[in-house]
Amino acid sequence: MLLAHFVVAETVDVLESLYGTRREQIAQAIRSLVTFDSIVCVDPALLLRAVEVYETDRIDFAEAYLVACAETTGIGRVASFNRSIDRVNTIERVEPPTI
C-alpha cells in the first residue's frame, strides 16, 4: 500500500484539529507506519525528517515538510509568510514580496 506524503499531512491535520491528538503521539504513529513492510513511501527519509521537524521544532506539518524538502535538495531557503519556520536553524526563511 502506498503512503503518500499529502495523505500524511491530511492525517496529521485531522488528528490534531478533530481529535486533539498530541504531536508526540502523531509523530510516533507516522514513524511506525513507515516501518511496516506492507507500506511503501516514495521517500521515507524525507517523510521521517519532516516528522522529526514537526515534532521537535513544533511547527505545522506542512511547514515541516517544506523544511525537509529544502534540506534534502540542498537549497536551504524557503519562501514563506509563516514565521514559525524561523525556529528551524538548518534553513533560511525568506519573506515573499507583497503583491
Describe, in plain words, how this protein is organized in 3D.
The protein is mainly alpha-helical. It has one domain. It contains four helices and two strands, in the order ααααββ. The protein has helices at 5-17, 23-35, 44-56, 61-73; strands at residues 77-79, 92-94. The chain has a two-stranded parallel sheet. The chain is globular, with a radius of gyration of 14 Å. It comes from Mycobacterium heckeshornense. Its cofactor is Mg(2+). One of its GO terms (molecular function) is nuclease activity. Pfam families: PIN (PF01850). Residues 6-89 form the PIN domain.
What is this structure's SSE topology?
Layout lengths: L4 H13 L5 H13 L8 H13 L4 H13 L3 E3 L12 E3 L5
In short:
Pfam families: PIN (PF01850). The chain has 99 residues and is mainly α.
- Report the helical percentage: 40-55%
Tally of helical runs:
4
Count of individual beta strands: 2
Q: How are strands sequenced across the largest beta sheet? A: 1-2
What is the mean pLDDT? 96
What is the chain-wise order of helices and strands? Answer: HHHHEE
Morphology call: globular
Organism: Mycobacterium heckeshornense
Cofactor: Mg(2+)
Keywords: Hydrolase, Magnesium, Metal-binding, Nuclease, Toxin-antitoxin system
GO molecular function: hydrolase activity; metal ion binding; nuclease activity
